[in-house]
Predict the structure.
Amino acid sequence: MRKQSEQTTVQQAGQVRLQLSVIIPLFNEEANVESLYRELATVLPRLGRSWEVLFIDDGSRDATVERLVHAAAGDPHVRIIRFRRNFGQTAAISAGIDHARGDVFCLMDGDLQNDPADLPRLLEKLDEGYDVVSGWRRKRRDPLLTRRLPSAVANRLISWISGVRLHDYGCTLKMYRRDALADMRLYGEMHRFIPIYAAWYGGRIAEIEVNHRPRQGGRSKYGLARTGKVILDLMVIMFLSHYSRKPIYVFGGFGLAMFAAAFGMFAYWFYEKFLRTPSINRPALPALVVGMTVVGFLAIFIGLLAEMITRVYYESQHKPTYAVREVIGSGEKDKCGV
């Protein structure tokens, strides 16, 4: 535990800074929010750190907000952010991060399947010097075919593509240092890939087992329908991780492959038409050669256009192409997180 002097809030840039912000997206969780608040109100004061809880209502159509307001009435640690409509879990998490005042962010679901009693262990692990601590629902209380099996396949695929080995990307229960998420913009279903973003900029990632409880009330918002979205977002992650700064490599590489295939088909057509006896007429091959050549040119042009957009993006925003953890020397020690 940190010293008592470190447990007080600090004033930075006119805004009260806290040590821990718990961010919880909610969508139609009227059956769970009161119990969730009571559990958090029991666990968080025992941490000995300044804290807040941000409930992000993602356009709930039931009595989620009303029950939460009643349960947390008069509690200065609680803030509720209401969306005008349902924007999705990633948007809710992004809003929570934007409004949070803590030096550490804790994300968790609002369905009571994440156990607030795990927060002290996550925080202790983070204090060992990690930037991200991810929960692992090793004993998961969900249906095998519709939830656990697809999740296991997805976790292995994401780990293989990204190089960031985690058993459970789908577990919302995670803790992050504020500077590990600086300047991060989330969209789509990208919230599950936050550890990958953090790792790109040198963040240290840890994973610990957490308790996973069966859902007691309400209905799950997850299912096989989201698998397609996750796969598409994974393709985006793969592209960004390898080619975000040199998109010409992927588009130009595809264009060159098309040129090579077109040349091979042309050579085959030329041999069949003029050198082989008896000659064989294949009228579809010339059209295919022309089509593949055009596709090759277009791919290279798209790659060049993507290169121009990439340069405008970095230069107009003065966005660095690197991330500095700290500067040591000359009497300075600056923490820099991107």
Q: What stands out?
A: The radius of gyration is 26 Å.
